[in-house]
Automatic annotation (TrEMBL):
SUPFAM superfamilies: Metallo-hydrolase/oxidoreductase (SSF56281). It comes from Aegilops tauschii subsp. strangulata. GO terms for molecular function: 5'-3' DNA exonuclease activity; damaged DNA binding. One of its GO terms (biological process) is interstrand cross-link repair. Transmembrane segments: none annotated. This is DNA repair metallo-beta-lactamase domain-containing protein. PANTHER family: DNA CROSS-LINK REPAIR PROTEIN PSO2/SNM1-RELATED, DNA CROSS-LINK REPAIR PROTEIN SNM1. InterPro entries: RibonucZ/Hydroxyglut_hydro (IPR036866).
């Protein structure tokens, strides 16, 4: 993720004039292989015969459209479902891979590891026939269990592709469990004080599920969200989440909204409707 950075997009500028796509940066190419990671907005990348997608966030899949025909897209099964459902990519190009399973692709051993980011997000581990190993993180959240993964415990990583917004000691985040626990306790406290409190969680199309699922479980209330997000959440195939999703905004004090709508006027409207 690159918040606050001005992105350079291929395609057309503000005047609608079409521009040549920018060249694929080196950090999206895996040396000694015909692979790229999260490189869909650079037109046809020379020498690339397999395109890896780390997760389904638009700053990573940007450039993928239903016209895609440049080569196979390797991603996790959950990401594969989203790519087909939301971007209408021809399924002939979508190649789902299981986590923690070694695949040989173009002579390279490839393993996806849980990235602890959004649903379907993976770290990608490449082992070349010359023994070199590369780890491309995509967006991820480091954790103890990740550090203990056998692939990261044994052997060296020759080159680490680190995609991180917060690589600075001034960012010291507590473990995710502590954050979720805090959010749940805060929601409970406010509801106790004012039973009509509306709890709003802002989220991109995917992400934050662990937060609102925990609130829903602790408060024993359904999760209300709009039809497009309901479709996405059901596609995860997570029974615990699916059974809590509601299409009725009156049914729950817990609403999940697009992140962009967490503004004062919009929230006032939401509060008025619920
Ligand atoms: Zn992301």
């Amino acid at each position: 993720a690159w918040p606050g950075r001005k992105r350079r997009w291929g395609g057309s500028d503000e005047n609608g004039a079409s521009r040549k796509p920018v060249a694929c940066p080196f950090y999206k190419k895996i040396p000694g292989t015909p692979f790229t990671v999260d490189a869909f907005r650079y037109g046809a990348v020379e020498g690339c015969s397999a395109y890896f997608l780390s997760h389904f966030h638009c700053d990573h899949y940007g450039g993928l459209t239903k016209k895609w025909c440049r080569g196979p897209i390797y991603c996790t099964a959950l990401t594969a479902r989203l790519v087909k459902m939301l971007l209408s990519i021809d399924s002939a190009y979508v190649c789902p891979l299981e986590l923690d399973t070694e695949y040989v692709i173009d002579g390279v051993k490839v393993t996806f590891l849980e990235a602890n980011h959004c649903p379907g997000a993976a770290l990608i581990h490449f082992r070349l026939s010359d023994g070199k190993t590369y780890l491309h993180t995509g967006d991820f959240r480091a954790s103890k269990s990740m550090q203990l993964h056998p692939l990261l415990q044994t052997g060296r990583i020759s080159l680490l592709y680190l995609d991180t917004t917060y690589c600075n000691p001034k960012y010291k985040f507590p473990p995710q469990e502590d954050v979720i626990d805090f959010v749940v306790r805060t929601a409970q406290r406010y509801l106790k004080k004012q039973p009509k409190t509306l709890i709003v969680v802002g989220a991109y199309s995917i992400g934050k599920e662990n937060v609102y699922l925990a609130i829903s479980q602790a408060l024993e209330v359904p999760i209300y969200t709009d039809a497009s997000r309901r479709r996405i959440l059901h596609s995860f195939g997570w029974p615990d989440l699916s059974k809590r999703i509601s299409s009725c905004n009156q049914s729950s004090p817990l609403h999940v909204l697009p992140l962009a709508s967490l503004q004062h006027e919009e929230l006032e409207e939401v509060l008025g409707d619920s």
